[in-house]
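Known limitations

Structure tokens in this collection are predictions and should be treated as such. Users comparing against experimental data should check residue numbering before alignment. To illustrate the layout, the record for Lysine 2,3-aminomutase is reproduced below. The input appears on top and the generated tokens appear beneath it.
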Amino acid sequence: MTTLSNNQQKIARRIDAGTAAEVWRDWKWQVRHAITDISTFERLLGISFGKDERRELEETANRFPLRITPYYLSLIDTKDLWIDPIFMQCFPSPAELQVEPDDMEDPLAEDADHPAATPTGCSFWSATSALCTGGTAPGN
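Generated tokens:
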């Protein structure tokens, strides 16, 4: 028998009133129900961000997309949201969007080791995204 915490039960009911504890433990179910937008995040946790907070989070999420499983979401302490370490891992700081003149283009030197570099200067990380450091993307 699987037992869920009170917070997990609330989130499961908000996703689907008929969610059984056994389904909650299924990683495929978790991935299918991953949170990818701020409105769903707010609804499932029963919180709402202020207008300025939401704008900053949306700007950050546009650059660093969200994908939070319901289980991971259930670990967030909504009483201390802004200092909660799980929340801070889920939402990068808006300060990450600020690029300073002295910032390194590739601070971890990953581009040089990336196996999919192309002659155009683009390194493809997935079928839908690319990091271009020079040249043009294929098809342009």
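For this record: The chain is about 35% helix and 5% strand. Residues 51-63 form the longest helix (13 residues). Please report discrepancies through the issue tracker.
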